[in-house]
Specification:
Number of domains: 2
Mean pLDDT: 90
Helix content: 10-25%
CATH class of the largest domain: Mainly Beta
Shape: globular
Structural class: alpha+beta
CATH superfamily of the largest domain: Probable inorganic polyphosphate/atp-NAD kinase, domain 2
Distance between the termini: 63 Å
CATH topology of the largest domain: Tumour Suppressor Smad4
Low-confidence stretches: 311-317
Radius of gyration: 22 Å
């Protein structure tokens, strides 16, 4: 029988997350599966525990288990830890399921209170898999050579490198110039990332089943500097103009960075490889927004059960 390799990704510097990681490793071992961790996570977990003699065997990602051999990744943490897990499994096709140990945890499927149930369902393969659009990101130099490549699940952000200097950029869509302005930066987001940096910057929330890319300027000094939404088959390029007073910085999901000198060009488009999220629940996205952001819905009457029409829209009292 093939080994079941389950990656455990944990922010193992917090007591509650450390104890949760130990519980998950124990549950996987009892079920006959192998717990896998990155060398960094295993080191942090070992340092936090102090005494690891009671810790079940854990296999090292990349050394003993290849990313392509992973069945699934269980993530203990917030959205940042889930983004890190997406990076760890990128070379394979394992889906990621998040157990929120932080605050909002928008991407998480479960909370710390139902950890044991979530692990049970993972072991039983009782989940569905949802594919989310990712971004392919390339940085080109003045000679149009690609000098850096990466991906993002949430967003690519091009930001000014110096606080006191404005970044001068020109925006291009499908090979045609759209506009230029001085700004603090530009955020290019997926629907998944629309509730993250894009949302904070004033961009639109995009339902996950809508395939689109959002482009949002940050503090632009211009008359035409509104968020735009483009087709997922389109591509957007942001050039740091030669007249820009300082360098820019590319951030992918707030995790990986690359300096952008004047003349650099960042090309962002839909990646051919999505990120796979394991789902334990079937709640609609509207409910997730309401619950995670604690949105006020007092006074909602609901649809008319007989016709499916909203009574409030029809004018009923």
């Amino acid at each position: 029988m093939d080994e079941r390799n389950i990656l455990v990704v944990a922010h193992a510097r917090r007591d509650d997350t450390v104890s949760a990681a130990v519980r998950v490793i124990e549950a996987l071992h009892t079920a006959g599966a192998r717990a896998v961790m990155s060398i960094e996570d295993l080191r942090d977990l070992s340092e936090s525990l102090g005494d690891t003699t009671a810790l079940r065997p854990v296999y090292l990602l990349g050394e003993q288990v290849a990313p392509a051999a992973l069945e699934l990744a269980i993530v203990l943490g917030g959205d940042g830890t889930i983004l890190r897990a997406a990076e760890l499994v990128r070379e394979g096709s394992a889906p990621v399921v998040g157990i929120n140990m932080g605050h909002v945890g928008f991407l998480a499927e479960g909370e710390r209170d139902n950890l044991d149930e979530a692990v049970r369902r993972v072991i039983a393969r009782d989940y569905t898999v949802e594919e989310r659009m990712a971004l392919s990101i390339r940085v080109k130099n003045e000679q149009n050579d690609t000098v850096y490549e990466t991906f993002a699940l949430n967003e690519a952000s091009i930001e000014k490198g110096d606080r006191e200097r404005m970044l001068e950029v020109v925006i291009e869509v499908d090979g045609r110039p759209l506009t230029s302005y001085g700004c603090d930066g530009v955020v290019v987001s997926t629907p998944t990332g629309s509730t993250a940096y894009n949302f904070s910057a004033g961009g639109p929330i995009i339902w996950p089943n809508v395939q689109a890319i959002s482009v949002v300027p940050l503090s632009a000094h211009a008359l035409f500097a509104r968020p735009i939404v483009i087709d997922p088959a389109s591509w957007v390029a942001i050039e740091v103009m030669e007249r820009s007073a300082g360098n820019g910085v590319l951030w992918a999901d707030g995790r990986r960075s690359r300096e952008l000198p004047p003349g650099a060009r960042v090309v962002v488009q839909r990646s051919v490889k999505p990120v796979r999220l394991a789902r334990l629940h079937t709640a609609v996205f509207t409910d997730r927004l309401v619950n995670k952001f604690r949105l006020p819905v007092d006074g909602w009457r609901g649809p008319d059960p007989a016709t499916g029409m909203m009574r409030a829209l029809r004018g009923d009292r």
